[in-house]
Write a structure and sequence with these properties.
The strands form 4 sheets. Strands 4, 5, 6, 7, 8, 15 and 16 form a 7-stranded mixed β-sheet that branches. Strands 11-10-9-12-13-14 form a 6-stranded parallel β-sheet, sandwiched between helices. 45% of the residues are buried. Helix content is 30%, strand content 24%. The two termini are 34 Å apart. It folds into 2 domains: 214 residues, Quinone Oxidoreductase, Chain A, domain 1 (Alpha-Beta Complex); 143 residues, Rossmann fold. Helix 7 packs across helix 8 and helix 7 packs across helix 13. By secondary structure, it is an alpha/beta fold. The protein is globular, with a radius of gyration of 21 Å.
């Protein structure tokens, strides 16, 4: 494969089949430029001053290159009745943020394009009139449709969780999205029970590691996959006996062997392409296939319905596709698990806000385990001036 640069990456991704996208992204190595050196000119930037600017958020001026990422001034809005406002300490980076920056995130058929950063951690700075579960000053981790790469962000109070005092803000920042995804997927459409077998694909990622914690609490038997030897070794170190290669469909033969031909009860999938049909073949009767990837769904990929005659379930899970009121029972489960010490922080790689572009580049390399977190508070934020955007 020839050398891949950000300038041609977005266009090439649009023309690749789904199963080749991950491979190409992994070939893009993280660069050395920081937020400041990645900008066109330091003269086009000025320090954020809260008394003047109120708030800021991250945008991409010209999608297709990480150098186009900029912080811009943003009005600070009061929380609505059922909302809390959080002063952000740390924000978590997700793959969708990379896709947004490169201009390859699929435009939703309904609604608006998401903003950068959907989960983070910080302190409650204001509460709506109908909120009783939180007060100003509470330390929380959260999920938000507004940007987490900001000084302040607003969110439904049901999307916030008290942060245990022993956790750092960086440790807590990446927890809301993966644990809400894992809890909803495994407990609702997944109906995972004690003694059942679950295959967790790409298990060294945030959702995968969250699912491992929950599956162990339930008492399920875990089989995992990961894409590199380092990640497979890490999962073995967690005590998972069977860890297979997620980049090859050979995992199907191994699972048939490991389960003596019966297959697994649940699959948590994020691998595009042929892995979906391969997964159907290794599900037991009444098996549940839980899809948390987006590429095949957005592409409108057609599935063969014949395997579903065995009472299989296919469920696509996107937490932002639900009304938070529907998620309230799951939120209560997670809050109780946190209080009981059943949820532990995931491994993190931390960057400062001035290293934001480096963080985006590192995520494209596909080498990280757990979550990538950016420290928002504690250093000077440089805003792009109007003529620079």
């Amino acid at each position: 494969m020839d050398h891949v640069t950000e300038s041609n990456l977005a266009e090439r991704l649009k023309n690749l089949p789904a199963d080749k996208v991950d491979l190409l992204l992994r070939r893009l190595k993280p660069g050395r430029r920081s937020q400041e050196t990645g900008r066109e000119s330091n003269s086009a930037l000025r320090p954020f001053v809260e008394s003047r600017d109120q708030n800021f958020q991250l945008i991409v001026v010209n999608p297709g290159t990480f150098d186009s990422l900029k912080f811009v001034a943003q009005p600070r809005l009061l929380p609505e009745d059922d909302q809390v406002e959080v002063e952000v300490e740390s924000a978590c980076l997700n793959f969708r943020d990379v896709a947004l920056a490169l201009g390859i995130y699929p435009r939703p058929e309904y609604g608006f394009m998401p903003k950068f950063g959907c989960n983070g951690a910080g302190r409650v700075s204001a509460v709506g009139s109908g909120v009783t579960h939180f007060k100003v000053g509470d330390e929380v981790f959260f999920l938000s449709a507004e940007s987490a790469f900001a000084r302040y962000t607003r969110l439904p109070h049901m999307a916030a969780f008290h942060k245990p005092p022993s956790w750092s803000f960086e440790e807590a920042a990446g927890l809301a999205l993966p644990f809400m995804t894992a809890f909803f997927a495994l407990l609702v459409p997944g109906r995972l029970n004690q003694g059942e077998q679950i295959l967790i694909h790409c298990a060294a990622g945030g959702v995968g590691l969250a699912a491992i914690q929950l599956a162990r609490t339930i008492g399920a038997e875990i089989i995992a996959t990961a894409g590199t030897e380092e990640k497979r070794s890490y999962l073995h170190g967690l005590g998972i006996r069977h860890v297979l290669d997620s980049r090859s469909l050979e995992f199907t033969d191994r699972i048939v062997e490991l389960t003596e031909g019966y297959g697994v009860d649940v699959i948590l999938n994020s691998i595009p392409g042929q892995a979906i049909e391969a997964g159907f073949r290794i599900l037991r009767n009444d098996g549940r296939f839980l899809e948390i990837g987006k590429r095949d769904l957005v592409a409108g990929r057609v599935l063969d319905l014949a395997p579903f005659s065995r009472s299989l379930t296919f469920a696509a899970i996107d937490i932002f596709g639900f009304d938070f009121k529907r998620l309230h029972p799951i939120v209560l489960e997670i809050r109780q698990a946190v209080a009981d010490g059943k949820i532990q922080p995931l491994p993190i790689t931390t960057y400062k806000a001035s290293q934001l572009i480096d963080a985006f580049r590192y995520m494209t390399a596909g080498k990280h385990i757990g979550r990538i977190v950016v420290q928002i508070k504690g250093e000077q934020i440089l805003l792009a001036t109007p003529h620079a955007t």
